[in-house]
Amino acid sequence: MDAHDSPWQILLDALLLQAGFNSLVVTTGTALLGGAAGLVGVFALLRRRSLVADAMSHATLPGVAIAFLVATGLEVKGLSLPVLLFGAASSGVLGVLAIDAIVRFSRLREDAAIGIVLSVFFGAGVVLISWIQVNSSSSSAGIDHFLEGRAASMLPRDTIVMASLAVGVAVLIAAFRRTFALVCFDEPFARMTGWPTTMIDLSILMLMVVVTVAGLQAVGIVLIVALLIIPAVTARFWSDRLSNILVIAAIVGTTSGYAGTAISTAFPDLPTGAVIVLTATAIFLASLLLAPNRGVLGHALRRWRLRMRIESDHLLEAVAEHIAGDASEAPITPDIWRSLHRVRGWSPWFSQLVLLRLRRRGLATGRGTDTVVTMAGCRRGREVIRNHALWEQYLVTHADIAPNHVDWSVDQVEHVLSTELIRRLERDLNNASPYGDAPS
């Protein structure tokens, strides 16, 4: 890679895994880490352990500092990654056990216990890191990088350790996902049928610890929880099936690690961990807006379509009320427009949108004052009137609601009754006794 290459050329090379050996190693490691974090994050989210993951990540800091001090005292290389990760894991497990002990043996709620453990452990870690930097030799340089991560300083052997942990977590998730899912979705049933729910729950927490520890050097203590939770939340927008959510979360996490590291390679002043998290956040925001079933735009579009359908039905209902018999066509008179504008609060531009919808569906023809409701439109208007009366009678007969209290609820429901439900209502009403009792 030429030093004079533009950042965009470097970014392209990094995305194509052609930016050099070090970039290849780091990108591979962070991508695997992101995928594993996404998988574990799904179960953390389902078990409502997001705040526990945050506390756990902060609780690893004193373990890193203590491991460094012990290794230095034993004349072992203090900045050895396996040593520091072992200390971080031990401290993270201790933090989880502390949360459980506080909840079990005191009257404090879990959120209070999480806040206590997070602040105390993280405060102790900051104090120890500061003391090490002031009082230790130059061998302590770089230990503070565990706070925010520094992927660029990772050596190939460090990446191998991180990638191995990530792959191991992914394999365990694939092997025991059904067991984890059982506890996440129906813990009382799992407990009654003899499953060791406590051990399974602790296994999920241990996987969270492993992913947290694996990502310390790449993403950092402060940001690793985001890599655990954001891919899982993003996947939830796209599917309701656990298997699909796991696959999507792994893809989002892998993409975040891969693209974030490539961007950091092209722009060296940007910290890799923060860029990875921001990349995951960008994917999350896109999913929040664009996901078809749970996204903001999709939800708004469905609400708009429902509103247009209901308002169109009101117009057809009003026309049907002004025609006699089985007329095949009927004009929309000025009186009908004035009534709808007054009662429904329509504006002139909204009226045109309703007419446009009716024309596109063949329910009306013509323009302006010459607009005529077609045979299909008249038929739909009579159906709405019939559904209105049918549901109103059902509420009075079967739900014991006073006739003067049913109009609002009828107005909300009459437009969305399915054909099968209408048949059931007709059958129930036809079989009802004269006293309004439900049919036997």
Would you mind describing this structure in some detail?
- Helices cover 72% and strands 1% of the residues.
- By secondary structure, it is mainly α.
- The protein folds into 2 domains: 7-292, ABC transporter involved in vitamin B12 uptake, BtuC; 299-431, Arc Repressor Mutant, subunit A, CATH 1.10.10.
- Residues 433-440 have low confidence and may be disordered.
- The chain has helices at residues 7-15, 21-46, 50-73, 81-105, 110-135, 156-185, 187-192, 197-214, 224-238, 242-266, 272-290, 296-321, 334-343, 348-360, 375-398, 407-413, 419-431, and strands at 330-331, 364-365, 372-373.
- α9 runs parallel beside α11 and α15 crosses α17 (419-431).
- It contains 17 helices and 3 strands.
- The chain has a 3-stranded antiparallel β-sheet with strand order 1-3-2.
- It is elongated.
- 37% of the residues are buried.
Give the helices and strands, then pairings.
Elements: H1 7-15, H2 21-46, H3 50-73, H4 81-105, H5 110-135, H6 156-185, H7 187-192, H8 197-214, H9 224-238, H10 242-266, H11 272-290, H12 296-321, E1 330-331, H13 334-343, H14 348-360, E2 364-365, E3 372-373, H15 375-398, H16 407-413, H17 419-431
Antiparallel strand pairs: 1-3, 2-3
Helix pairs in contact: 1-10, 2-6, 2-8, 2-9, 2-10, 3-4, 3-5, 3-8, 3-9, 4-5, 4-8, 6-8, 9-10, 9-11, 10-11, 12-14, 12-15, 15-16, 15-17
